[in-house]
């Protein structure tokens, strides 16, 4: 490989790293910590045990730190590398979140946000589970992701408990609405960051070639399997609290390829 080629690949990887760090940073303070703060202070309106509320304060601090270490790493990299970062737009999860929030009735909004956060806090993404063990990834990034994954394992336990409590306190109408949206929460959250990938490729390829590369790199069936696998424990949680008892909910999950796989029926 020529020097020019390896320089090009290095730039593309840096762009993608910045997309990931920017998404993590924004997710923590734009989404997760809004809900964590409401849970911690009692502003959520949920009847939460005092020790759970205190744990939500801890999550609030953890997430602020996750934002900080992403911003810090980007600043350190910028110190050594001069390049212009183009995010290509919002990550699909943030885009979806902000669009849906606009359409929510004011009284539904905190519930929508809470369950979006429950999804994000209970999924086990391929990045969190895989990157810390990936020898090709530079140590600073591996350590950052490993540190994050360790905290998120604790958040997973806490938000599983919060989910159980919240579901028990949601009205019947809210339960129907939330459970119908959950499969979309999951799929959008775990979708590849195509705006970022498009931004990287479009500087070097024509638009049709860019779209071909994205399609070939993320085959539909492979993406569905990755989503089903990363969401397995979240779907099991929903099943455990009785959410799947409603046939329409089960069907909504099945349509997205989530439910049967998660309970071990097809994989
Ligand atoms: Fe986090
Ligand atoms: Fe978290």
Question: In words, what does this structure look like?
Answer:
The structure is a single chain. This protein is an all-alpha fold and 267 residues long. It has one domain: Orthogonal Bundle (Ribonucleotide Reductase, subunit A), CATH 1.10.620.20. Helix content is 76%, strand content 0%. It is built from 13 helices and no strands. Helix 3 (92-103) packs antiparallel against helix 7. It is globular, with a radius of gyration of 19 Å. The model is unreliable at 261-267 (pLDDT under 50). The protein binds fe (ii) ion (FE2) (2 copies). One fe (ii) ion binds at residues 32, 59, 63, 121, 152, 155.
Remind me, CATH topology?
Ribonucleotide Reductase, subunit A
Ligands in the model, by name, code or SMILES, are: fe (ii) ion
The residue fraction in helices comes out at: over 70%
Task: Compute the number of helices.
Answer: 13
State the secondary-structure class: mainly alpha
Tally the structural domains: 1
CATH class division: Mainly Alpha
Which whole number gives the mean pLDDT?
Answer: 91
Examine the secondary-structure arrangement and name the CATH architecture.
Orthogonal Bundle
Tell me how many strands there are. 0
Spatial extent as radius of gyration: 19 Å
**Biggest sheet layout:** none
- What gross morphology would you assign? globular
Low-pLDDT sequence parts: 261-267
CATH homologous superfamily descriptor: Ribonucleotide Reductase, subunit A
Estimate what percentage of residues fall within beta strands.
under 5%
**Separation, N- and C-terminal Cα atoms:** 39 Å
